[in-house]
Amino acid sequence: MNSATTPLRIVLLGATGTIGRATVAALVERGHTVVCFVRAPTDIAGATVRVVNVGDPASLARDGFAGERFDAVVSCMASRTAVAKDAWAIDHRAHLHVLDAARQAGADHFVLLSAICVQKPLLAFQQAKLAFEAALVESGLRYSIVRPTAFFKSLSGQVERVRKGRPFLIFGDGSLTACKPISDHDLADYIADCLSEPSRWNRILPIGGPGPAITPREQGEALFAMLGRQPKFKSVPVGLLDAIAGGLGLLGKVVPSLAAKAELARIGRYYATESMLVLDPVSGRYDPAATPATGSQTLFDFYQALVDGAAMPDRGDHAVF
Ligand SMILES: NC(=O)c1ccc[n+]([C@@H]2O[C@H](COP(=O)([O-])OP(=O)(O)OC[C@H]3O[C@@H](n4cnc5c(N)ncnc54)[C@H](OP(=O)(O)O)[C@@H]3O)[C@@H](O)[C@H]2O)c1
To answer: What are the pLDDT digits (tens) for 77-110?
Structure first.
């Protein structure tokens, strides 16, 4: 059924998020009929919008799938906070409801946007994502589980402060981690083509952007070069994040709202010390050469567009700075 030229009827989740927005455009461009399940009324160019409570199977059936036939589900949905309660509710439980409803609607393919960091799951949201990945693999539906590296928005938080003359913040010497950043557009193309590309069926697909892996120090150096300034770095000790997470963790046992802040500090610590690259299970090392790449847009092109004022940063989840 799936070929590059076959228009499909697709349910898209998370169409109002960073990657979801780019993915609607990629799916529409390929001639598919796209029905977006959203939680608040909005207009999405080229697509039909339905307001659905994805946490409620009755709403999914009545307001979402509405007794109609669909060929596939594409999900770019994820909790906006990544704290444990939200992650288990959205990244896991809501997706289970959608999987059930999708099967009933005749869908035979589920494309899931996940994250490369689930390969070393130390955080609650990673466990929630992995639990749904496992359910999807076991479901018998055709699956494509896309695990991208770092998004541009998560690596662009310091452009404004550097432009104002402040130093670029790094952990340690700025080379503790590396990633192969992927643009929203390139990732959306990759996700959309999972529907028609048999080599992406029933696979877990780590994916990065073009070019070599880059460290935070290299990101800063490129930015200073674009601005015609001498590089100026300020090193932040990783131990500081440990102290914040530890302190908030203790206080969180008494004040529940601080427990969520402790989890956010742990997330920050994770990204300060873990690379967004394929992890070699034997050596335990991150391996840039083993991390597949797609697309043509580079982070440094994006920095240049930000510096020129031609693009706006979409500050996102999990950015450490
Ligand atoms: N940032 C990175 O560098 C990075 C790297 C690799 C992988 N990832 C993964 O990529 C995924 C998506 O990223 P993104 O940046 O595109 O996400 P995003 O911009 O935060 O968008 C999340 C989407 O999920 C929807 N959503 C959240 N909670 C919902 C709920 N309760 N009911 C219905 N819809 C809900 C949002 O809808 P609303 O607009 O209504 O909130 C939005 O459409 C995440 O799983 C993340 O872990 C991120």
So the answer is: 999 999 999 999 999 999 999 999 999 999 999 9
Amino acid at 265: A
3-state secondary structure at position 7: coil
| Burial zone of 196 (CB within 10 Å; 0-12 exposed, 13-18 middle, 19+ buried) | middle
The amino acid occupying position 8 is L
Measured CA to CA, the distance from residue 184 to residue 206 in angstroms comes to 15
Contacts of 240 (CB under 8 A, 6+ apart): none
Angle among Cα 91, 54, 35 to the nearest 5 degrees reads: 105
Using the atom order of ligand 1, give the atom closest to the CA of residue 19.
16
- pLDDT beneath 50: ranges in the chain: 1-3
Pocket residues: Cβ below 6 A from ligand 1: 14-20, 39-40, 54, 76-80, 90, 113, 115, 148, 150-151, 154, 316-318
Q: Which pLDDT tens digit goes with each residue over 202-235?
A: 999 999 999 999 999 999 999 999 999 999 999 9
Beta-carbon contacts of 165 under 8 Å, excluding residues fewer than 6 positions away, are none
Task: Tell me how far apart the alpha carbons of residues 91 and 110 are, in angstroms, rounded to a whole number.
Answer: 14
Q: What is the DSSP letter of 88?
A: I
Place of tokens 């996102």: 316
